[in-house]
Task: structure prediction
Amino acid sequence: ALAANPDDSYATLRLGDVSQTDADREALYRRALLLAPRWAFARAHLAEFLLEAGRAAEALEFTEGHENDSFDVLAAHGRALLDTGHCDEAIPVFEQALSWSSQPSSSLYYWKWAAQEDCGQHEAALATAQAATPLFPKNLLWHVRAAISLRHLGKLDEAERVIEAGKAKGLGQEHVLEA
Result:
């Protein structure tokens, strides 16, 4: 498809998805966005690639000012803010993303919780963990996250009860040590 139309942003993006090297993938994602600068899907792909590569500051350059273009760009923007130490700015972004989604993922709740914890908002982080726990009953790490927030609040007995409840559901010892 690219041979027939080298300016096909969709084909360029999809070629990036199946590319064998990170360098090729990045170059193709960048080219797709260059070909279609208003295409939120390409912007989100590039930002996610940069985030996964540990290059949050670069991802932020591509999401800043575009966070309302799509849900995926908004979520990537929040992650870029969080990963660059701007937890106070990331929290409302994750709250907005949660409000946009009819079925938010556990990871979206995790990023909100992590931003709240990083900002020292342990009560809010606990509320996020408590809200996520029944929504994702198979993700037992929410017990650990709630216990971490409780520990930060000095509520050690409560934290221990939450961990015990998680262990009763199958929470492994390797995760218990995190709390």
Q: What stands out?
A: The chain has a mean pLDDT of 95. The longest helix spans residues 22-35. The chain is about 70% helix and 0% strand. Residues 21 and 148 are 38 Å apart (CA to CA).
